[in-house]
Design brief:
The chain is an alpha/beta fold. It folds into 2 domains: 198 residues, Glycogen Phosphorylase B (Rossmann fold), CATH 3.40.50; 176 residues, Rossmann fold. Strands 1, 2, 3, 4, 5, 6, 7 and 8 form an 8-stranded mixed β-sheet that branches. Strand 3, helix 2 and strand 4 form a beta-alpha-beta unit. The termini are close together.
C-alpha cells in the first residue's frame, strides 16, 4: 500500500463536476474542514473545474479534469482516468453521485489496483421517472453493481431507505450526513445591516430567504407564488432569493411578480456570499419538491440562527426538529402558512427559535464531527484491506 506526503494515505474523489451543488459543496467542506490533515486528497472531475474546482485547488489539493462532454469525449476521458489512477495508485477511491460512482468502479477495475472503494450518494430516489433518461440508466447500473463498493455512504436516512427499497445492496450501507461549518455560518448583526443596506432593505423589515440553483426539483414557481402572496399582504416583508439562474433577467420568474411588489422580491442570481446574505434573513425557506437528501443549506441557515420552513423532503424533518416548520411538498397553502407563522412571532420568540436551531446543528451536524466520522471510516476500510 502506497503512502505519500508525510505517510498519509491517498484518497481520490471522483465526482461528476464541480459546479455549486450540494455534493460539490460537501466535498469542498470536508477537505477544507480537516480531511487533508490525515489524508492526501486528489479530486478528479469528470467534466471541468466549475466554480468549486479553483477553491479546492486553493487549499493545495490537486484537481484533474477529464472534460467529458458528449460521446466522442468518453474514450479520451477514460484513458486519462486510467493513466491518473495508475500513476497515483490511491489507497481509497471515493465516487460522488451516480456518474462518479460508476467512474470510480471502472477506475478500480481497469487499473486492477487494490484501493478501497466508496460510493457516495447525495440524492433521494422518490421516483426514478422524475430523473432524466440518461440518469435513469446510470442509477440502474449503480443498482446492478451496488455490491462492488466496500461501503455505500448515504448522506441521509431517507436516501438510504429509498435506494435500498429500489434494490441497492443494504449490507454495506452507512449514513454520513453533511456537516456545517459553524464558524463560517454564524450570525453577525453588523453583516446583516451591511447586506440590507446594499440591497435597499430597511433595518426593520422582515426578510425571507432562499438559496438554490434553478432546477425543477427546487420548485421556484411555488417559491415565487408564496412570496407574491405574502408580500401582497405584508408591506414590510422582503425576499432574498439567490442561486444560479434565479436572477432579475429571468423572464419566467419576473413575469410571475406584480410590478407593485417587485422592489421587495430580490432575485440575486448566483452569489459567493451566502453566509453573509443569511445574516440579513429572519426566516429561511426550502421549497423543494423532490430529490433532496440532506439539504446542506438548512444546516447553514440554522447555524446562522435562522428559523427554517422546509418541505418534507429527504431528512429535512430530522435536521430541523422542533426548531422550525415542516410542510408537505408542493403544498402552496401550507408553505405560505408556515412562513407566515414564523414571521408573525414576536422577535424575541423568533430569535430564541433561531438560537435553538444553531444549538441543534452544533450538537448533531457540525463539520468537525462529520470529518472525524469520515476519518474513522477511512481508517477502518484501510485496516480491512490490509488483512
Amino acid at each position: 500500500m502506497q503512502f505519500l506526503r508525510n505517510n498519509k494515505p491517498i484518497v481520490i474523489h471522483l465526482i461528476n463536476g464541480l459546479e455549486t451543488g450540494g455534493a460539490e459543496k460537501a466535498l469542498f467542506n470536508l477537505i477544507n474542514g480537516g480531511l487533508e490533515k490525515k489524508y492526501t486528497n486528489h479530486v478528479i472531475s469528470l467534466s471541468n473545474l466549475g466554480k468549486i474546482g479553483p477553491d479546492i485547488q486553493a487549499l493545495g489539493v490537486p484537481v484533474t479534469t477529464l472534460n467529458m462532454k458528449g460521446v466522442w469525449s468518453v474514450l479520451p476521458a477514460l484513458l486519462k482516468l486510467h493513466h491518473t489512477i495508475k500513476e497515483i495508485n490511491p489507497d481509497i477511491i471515493q465516487g460522488w453521485m451516480y456518474h462518479g460512482n460508476l467512474a470510480a468502479l471502472f477506475a478500480r477495475k481497469m487499473t486492477k489496483c487494490k484501493s478501497a472503494l466508496i460510493w457516495n450518494i447525495h440524492h433521494t430516489l422518490y421516483d426514478i421517472k422524475l430523473e432524466k433518461l440518461m440518469t435513469r440508466q446510470v442509477i440502474r447500473l449503480n443498482r446492478l453493481f451496488s455490491s462492488s463498493p466496500d461501503m455505500l455512504l448515504y448522506v441521509s436516512q431517507q436516501s438510504r431507505k429509498l435506494h435500498e427499497n429500489y434494490g441497492y445492496k443494504p449490507e454495506t450501507g452507512f449514513v454520513l450526513p453533511n456537516g456545517t461549518d459553524v464558524d463560517k455560518f454564524s450570525f453577525s448583526q453588523a453583516t446583516g445591516k451591511k447586506i440590507r443596506a446594499q440591497l435597499d432593505v430597511p433595518d426593520d423589515a422582515r426578510v425571507v430567504g432562499h438559496a438554490a440553483r434553478l432546477h425543477p426539483m427546487k420548485n421556484h414557481p411555488m417559491l415565487i407564488q408564496a412570496a407574491v402572496i405574502i408580500a401582497s399582504k405584508s408591506p414590510d416583508v422582503h425576499f432574498l432569493f439567490a442561486g444560479k439562474g434565479v436572477a432579475s433577467d429571468n423572464d419566467k420568474l419576473t413575469t410571475m411578480i406584480p410590478s407593485s411588489i417587485e422592489s421587495r422580491i430580490h432575485l440575486l442570481g448566483e452569489r459567493n456570499d451566502i453566509s453573509e446574505l443569511m445574516c440579513a434573513m429572519d426566516v429561511y425557506c426550502l421549497s423543494s419538491s423532490w430529490g433532496e437528501a440532506f439539504p446542506i443549506v438548512l444546516g447553514e441557515a440554522m447555524s446562522t440562527m435562522i428559523p427554517c420552513v422546509a418541505t418534507d423532503v429527504g431528512d429535512s424533518e430530522l435536521i430541523i426538529g422542533d426548531t422550525g416548520v415542516i410542510v408537505p411538498p408542493d403544498n402552496l397553502e401550507a408553505f405560505v402558512e408556515g412562513i407566515e407563522d414564523i414571521l408573525s412571532m414576536p422577535r424575541e420568540e423568533r430569535n430564541l427559535m433561531g438560537k435553538n436551531a444553531r444549538t441543534r446543528i452544533e450538537k448533531n451536524f457540525s463539520l468537525v464531527a462529520i470529518v472525524e466520522q469520515l476519518n474513522s471510516i477511512y481508517a477502518d476500510l484501510l485496516t480491512e484491506k490490509q488483512i
